[in-house]
Each structure stands twice: as structure tokens, then as C-alpha cells.
Input
Amino acid sequence: MSDTHAPAHRPQDLDDAIAGGVGESPLRPDGTLKVRGDFAYSSDLWAENMLWGATLRSPHPSARIRSVDIGPALRSPGVHAVLTAEDVPGRNLYGLKDIDQPVLAEDVVRYRGEAVALVAADHPETARRALDLIEVDYEVLEPVVDAELAAHDDSLPKVHPGGNTVRYQPIVKGDPEVTADVVVSGTYTVGMQDQAFLGPESGLAIPAEDGGVDLYLATQDLHTDRKQTAAALDLDPELVRMTMSGVGGAFGGREDLSMQVHVCMLALRTGRPVKIVYDREESFFGHVHRHPAKMYYEHGATRDGDLVFVRAQLYFDGGAYASKTPVVVGNGTTLGVGPYDVANVSIQGWGMYTNNPPCGAMRGLGAVQPAFAYESQMDRLAEALDMDPVELRIRNAISRGDTTPTGQVLDYPAPVAELLRRVRELPLPEAPAAGAEPDIRDLPGGASNTTHGEGVVRGVGYGVCIKNICYAEGADDFSTARVRLQNVAGEPLAMVHTAAAEVGQGLVTVQQQIARSELEVERVNIHPNDTSVGPAGSSSASRQTYVTGGAVQAACRAVRERLLAITAERFGEPAAELSLSGGKIVSRESGVLADIAEVLGSEAIEETREYHHRETFPLDERGRSERAQVQHAFSAHRAVVDVDTELGLIKVVQLDCSQDVGKAVNPESVVGQIQGGSAQGLGLAVMEEIQVGEGKIRNPSFTDYLIPTILDMPPMNVDVIERGDPNAPYGVRGVGEPPTISSTPAIVAAIRAATGRDLTHVPVGPEHIIG
Amino acid sequence: MRLNLTVNGRAMTADDVWEGESLLYVLRERLGLPGSKNACEQGECGSCTVYLDRVPVCACLVAAGQAQDREVGTVEGLADGEELSTVQRAFIDEGAVQCGFCTPGLLVAADDLIERVPEPSDAEIREALAGNLCRCTGYEKIMAAVRTAAERSGGTSGSGSSAGGDRT
Output
């Protein structure tokens, strides 16, 4: 390293910019490991002397537990521990918002699938068989299964002592009693959707010599998991160390605890490493689902098509435990009119306890359900007005400066009308040539050979949506990043360390890009996620590029400031005149001063920063708030479908999307998010529903719960625009959720156009088209 | 029971195998090859797709004993040492990998397709991969990856991998 204070006077090459920064599409750093099969997902982990855990679950949606006999299971060869509620060392309750769910059921069970007992054994089959030997004496009770009834019928049993309402929220704007020239109304229902991430819930717990435990797991939020787990284990959180393993998708389904406390309890009891891996059936019982909803809507408009009022009552079935139900009610009611400017609004939302499976976060939470309803209403209104449905939407589209139903002024771009115009202009698929024999693989029913084109009708439909980004309603929403810059073998290397969960969305790539752009270094490593750095919050609410991106940006800038200060002192130039470029420190006056690595020498510069987004505020009793939500995102879809009107089979032929992402940090990853999100919306539109009868899931398998295959998902035109949010780092706007929301109503609108049917339930099945 | 089989060209033995174990379990838990994934374990998702005597199968549906004295090829055998196979490279380049849990099965299925049909049409790609679920990508970039892999293979003999084949 040079100790001279004289500038190096090498030619300054400003073209020597670092590749792979913000706005480019570098490849993901974990791609090679993933294609080699070497990426260690949580279910892949293994430890010497490891035992397998298994979970006994309630067969009843509502029952009193009279007794539990673990004796026969405990005496079974190969079994090392059998644990029940009595063995929970600390607080036998957890929860994300309301702390209401037992780690293991005590005297009652509130849903079919609730965890009752645990086994650790030397082989997974031994553990499963031991579960059958645990004798639980249940007094079966009548379950509460109807959320709307639960909201209004006080004679129903109380699922929890405090009553059956998790949250009630009204939103009132203007005159809720106003009348209008044209009024349309409808009742809409949304089925229970599953996240259906492919990597099963799993974790490996290793007891530590200090009395604590190390848990390697797949989750969306390490710190929230740790807080809940430590309380249940009665351990100092510092003794519950969590490290992220590979996550096989999440989509909201890993926000709540599943095996975390259980596997730690077994490890601490046996003194041996214990691994729990759910199979697919258990996964359906072991995580929350998307809230089913029943929604009553009334829209009023002038004869010219200006919305006058929207009135709605929304019932969300939260199931047995609260999970994210309060957030779902908040999102559902505040976003319940959609991306439209409406002067008079009255929306009431109920989130209810029932004895159905617990529901919580899933991509687009709380916004998916009303979007199906309000977009169906907009189509119905267009028909009543004899207007083009896209023109009606454009006429009423919300835009920058407008006020939401909660009284919040949108002080950032809201290009809803533009998105609708753009998606309408995207190329349509070619119509099948007249007289030509179609390829049956392109038709509804596909290779099943159910039609050669007879009875097949094509329809086109549109949908547009609004989704709030980040946590809302007064939550202190922040993330933490630690960035270390050092000289490794003559090259500057940045290490970015956060607890922000990479669940497949590409956050690791985004963090590298930000560090490259801010520090002008090529090599950026991502430290494994763990709890040795501050919280990042959950990889949910489309928030991580915003908040963790903001934290990485802030930490990098702090590192840069120190680096420039050191350089300024060494070279006697004012720090304000210095900048970084292509791995070098450059003076405005003197050109290149030195390589970054040279200035660093053997010193590392490390800075940790938190990023908090703008403050939000709670809703009052009329649903008013100066700023309930920090940002809103918008997307518009157009769907083209072919429907076999004789058999009720549907083929989505093309699905196109225009979305505003503020700033595409990684354009290719943005497109990947839009494609993947749209596929999940397609699933909800035409195939995905957990069938629940008398509180029991009837289809807990991929044989009976269908998600889109490569045959179901059509080609997409994706149109990304960037109308930056001046309040967000780089202008970013959350990307992941909107495409899941607006795709569903667009597809259903297209099916309506093809069939003339009302279609008030998703998913749409053949029975809705033929019946 | 003791199980003898060849995996990715190497003779392997697993002891104390319980008769009810699947080939997938043996690969993942006994042979240290967790690349093949356990997403549904009932033959619906394809994430455990491996070659069994060069034929793609769901390893979760193969009883361990059925693999006795047979040749198994897994995702770990697709690359030639440090060099990724054409299909693997294309999945990375086209952004076909997000969470990556479906990727190992898709790679084996796509490798098999290009081996059998060097220039597959889109309809043939969709048909061949219809048994492999992906929840992240919406499949568009997977389609792109398979098209790219086929192109780069030049319509010659498959994607240049010898997984499950005769590598010694």
C-alpha cells in the first residue's frame, strides 16, 4: 500500500464502471449451487446422531381433551421422547399479532390439525408409528364453521374466551347514504387458497453446551421466529440462535411458526440434534392459508359512468387462531374500493375466529379477495351503463394527488389509467385459422382430447388492482444491514449481512447490486442470514427491496463516507471532492487518487444501519388516517381464455400484465416476479381451493389441491414501467404482490365474456359454467 | 436390508435400509445426495425426478429395493465436474431458478427431453415438463431455458450430460 499523499495521477477512466449494479440484471449468486443440487435447503440438513421429530395433530376441529396417554408411545423401541403441553418450558402461546395459539394444545383443540404432542425417534417411520400409539381422549364439540354467522350470532360457541371477532373495521368517507343513477350489487366468495410452496416446513435443532439451541430453518422472518420461540422455551433470545437455510418458496406461508418451537423442545429434551420435515399432507395442516371471504358489494354511478359510492361488507374467515387476520381486515377494508377515486364510501370488514383451518398471510393478503369483488362489480357496472369496461375503469382511476377512502393523499405516482391503456395495447394472440384443424393441446381439456374446437368460445377480460407495500397502520417498519468493506488479495470486497430472508425472490441479487452501485466494487458477498445482525422484518408485503434495500444503501453510504474521509486525510483533498468509480477513488480536481483496496490496506470498514420508512398511523374508529400505508402499487392484467362451453373446461390462452415498479432494480427478476405472481392468480381463478367441510380439509395433497402446471400457464406479455416513488430508495415500488391480485379478476372477466355467466366465486370450476 | 446400486456412475451401498423406504429417502438420507427434492412424496410434483436406468422416474415412488443393482442418475450427476451441463447453464442464464426447489427435477426432465427430442416445439416442452410443478416462476423462464438449452445443444445428442448413464 502506498503511503504517499501525492495523487497517483493515473488516467481517470470513467468508463470503468462496475457491472451488475442497480438497474441491470446480473444472475443470482445462488444459481450455480441450486442447479447442481448443492444448495442446502432446510430439509436437506443432517447432523451426526440426529433424531427425527413428528407431530401428533388433532383429528377434530373442536374438542375438549380429557386425557393424553403417552406411555405406549414412550415405550416403543427407537423412541427417545414424547412431549405434550406439560413439557412446554415457557409460554405455551405464540402469534404474530395476537398471542393466542398454543405450542401444544392443553385442554382444547380448535382446529383439525392442531398440534397436540411430539415424538423424537431414530427413524422418521418409527416416529410416525409412535404417534399412533399416543392415546388422546377427546370430547368432540360442535365446530363454528361460518364466519358471517360468527360475526352476528352471539349464540354460537366462543372459539376463544374473548369472543369470535378478531377485528372489526369500518371505513367511512363522504356520505355513505348517497344515492346514484345506476346501482349494481353482488355477493362474491373467494375460496381458501394455499401458498403451496414446494419446500416443506423443516428445521434442524442442535442443542448447545450453553443451554441454548441452534436452529437451522426455512422462514420468512428470523427475529420474529426467535422472539416467539425463546418465549415458549423460556430462554434468553440470545440463547436461541437461528440461521437461515435454503428456503423452498414462502408466499406468506412461513410467517407463522410451524415446527420451530417443537423441534427445539425435542432437541433440548433429548440432548441430540433433531430434524423435523413435514410431508405434503402435514404441510397443508401445518401452515396458515389465504382467508376465504364472503363479500357484499353495492356500486353506484352517474349515467356518465362516474362512481358515486361504494358500499361493502367483507367477512374474512380467520379460522382457529388470529395470525395475520388483523392485517387482512386492515388491507381488505382500506383497499376495498380498488384503485378508484370514490367520493362516498362505506366499508365494513370482519375478521372472525372459527374452527376452520387458521388463515394468515399469503401473497397479496387482504387485497386479493376484494379485488375479485370490486373488479367483478366494475364489469357489472360497465354492462349496466353500456360502457366499455376498460374505459369505465380509466374514467374512475385513482391518480397522484387523489384521496383514498381512509383520507390519505397519494403523494407519489399512481399511474392506474396508464397501466390500463398500456395493457390494452399489448398484442393479442392470433385467432385460430378458420377451417384449420386445431392442435388439441392448445384447447380446453388439452391432450384429454375432449374437443376439437366445437363448443369452444374465446373471451377477453381485464383487471386492475391496488396493494399497499410494507407494514402499515403505525407499525415501526424497518430493516438492518451491516456492510463491511475490506481488501482481499488486492481487490476490494464488500460483505453484506442482513437477516432478510431470501425465499427465492432474488433479494440476494438485489443486495449485491446495491452494494456494487454504492461502493463501486465488483465483488460483493452476501453473508448467511442469521440472528447475529439486527432485524430485517419479514420477506412479505412486497417490502424487502424497499426496506432492506434501503438499509443496505444506507450502510454502504456510511462505509463510503468513512473511506472518503480516510482518503481525504491521506491525500489532502476535501472529502466532498471525492467519489468512487470502478474500484477507484477519484478526485474531481486530480483524477484517480488510488485503488479502493490500496486505501483500505489491512483495515476493514464496517458500518451497520437501520432503514425506517416514513411513519404510518393507525386507523381511527371511522377508518381515517393521515397515512395508513406508506406506499401503494398497481398492476393491470388482460386475460384471453378459451372455454369449452359444453364441458365447462377452461384454457387460459394468454395473460398479459402492465405494472409500475417505481424502479426496476433487477429488470429480469421483476419480470420473473410478475410471471410467477400471475400464475398464482391464475391458480385462484380456475383451480386452487382447499375444500373444507365441517372444519376439515378434504384435499390435503397435490393430487387433489391443484396448482398450475406448465400446461396451464400461458405465454405472457409483460410491460414494466418505472414511475419512481420519491420517498423510496431508488424510487422502488413493491413488485411481488400486485400481479397475484389483478390476474384473478381478469381471467374471470374473460370467462364471463366467453360464457355470459355471472361467476361470483373463485376458483371457477366446470360446475359454474355448465350448472 | 443392504442396497447396492450405481449412482451417477459410482457404485454405492446403503446398509440397514428399512423395506418401506423410497429411493428418494435413500438418496437423500443415506447416500448424502439431497439434490433430489422432497416436495410432495406422492409423485405429483416431479421435484424428485431422477434417471433409473436412463428413464426419468419420481424417486419418491420407487421403493428402495427396486433400485437394487440398477443405475440411478441424479441432479448431482448432470454437471461434468466443475462444468455445468447445457441445461443447467441455460436455467441460470434465463432466470429459470427462483427458490430452486423444483429445479433439480426439472433439470433431469429437461435433460431427458433434449436427449430424446433435440429440437422440441413449445408444445413438446410443455408436455414433457407437465409433471414438474414450479410455484415461483410461472414457467415462462423455464420455457426459455429449455429452448435455449436445445439451441445451444445444436440439436445434437442431448445436452451433453451423462447423468445416470455410462460414466465410469
Observations:
- Residues 86-153 of chain B form a domain with the DNA polymerase; domain 1 fold (CATH 1.10.150.120).
- Chain B has two domains: 3-77, 86-153.
